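hiii, so i know i said id send this last week but things got crazy w the move. better late than never?? heres the sequnce for the chain we talked about at the cafe, plus the structure i predicted for it. fair warning i was half asleep when i ran it
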Amino acid sequence: MLKDLQHPLELSTAELQPFASRIGFPTDVLFDILSKKEDQYYRFPISKRNGKNRWIEAPKNELKSIQKQLLLQILYEQKAHSAAHGFVPNRSILTNAKPHVGQNWVVNFDISNFFSSTQIHLIHKVLQTYPTLSKREQHIIFTLISKDNTLPQGAPTSPHIANLVLYDFDHFISDYAQKHQLAYTRYADDLTFSGDQIPKELPLIVKKRLKEDGYHLAQHKTSWTGKHKRQLVTGLVVNDKINLPRPMRRQMRAIIHSIKTNGSIKAFATSSWSSDQLYGRIALQAMWDSEAAEKQLRELLGAQELDWTAYI
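okay and structure toks below
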């Protein structure tokens, strides 16, 4: 498809200069990154809940900075579908969960190997939708955001590109959901539907349409949850209102009590949470219940007048 650009590194620095200026990066730095791109990633495992490892390929600092500039200066020109909430400006796990509050049924699906399953021709197809990019610039960007001809999990550009790859899928599924009076949202590889009644054909519809784009469902992660059980959407309870799961709230209270009683060093020494995790969950709660979050921070910090937003 871009046969004439299969060797982008044959570009001279003079030819690369306009593109470098566009994204606000020195030409020589960009040229060096392109010349040694395969050496620009750290690869390391993180443990999943099932005990297996997920391999992360995180860009080194200079490439990561370039990828962030690509997002800000070019890639955000194309918007994700309104159903997509993961890694989208001004959207979050909260906006992803809200449409599903108080529903009879919540159904969750998970896309297997999301980033590594994103096919090369679909990434090129996305880049071709940018009217301001020449074919050469499209290929330069592809070289900067891809690794081994797919999206590296760990690059800041990967979630947005994946959202754009799934734009047509989101559009098709949103239309289907609307016709059947369902709410539909997607947070990266997590797909959620909710409503009074869920069509039995829904898994087949989702599976078939995903397959058209080269993706597959992780069948063991599919869940159907009625209103009499705890309904979770991207980690948040949505039965009657948005909330953290009860075990998490209990653990937050227990750690705060331990800090007040024994001090933070002893409290965190005996807890599976770090201080960052505790403050992170308080910050998360503040997204929908600022009063409760402020109360917890007052207890932690012993302040009479505290602007809790400084910790969010």
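btw The chain has a mean pLDDT of 91. thought thatd interest u
miss u guys!!
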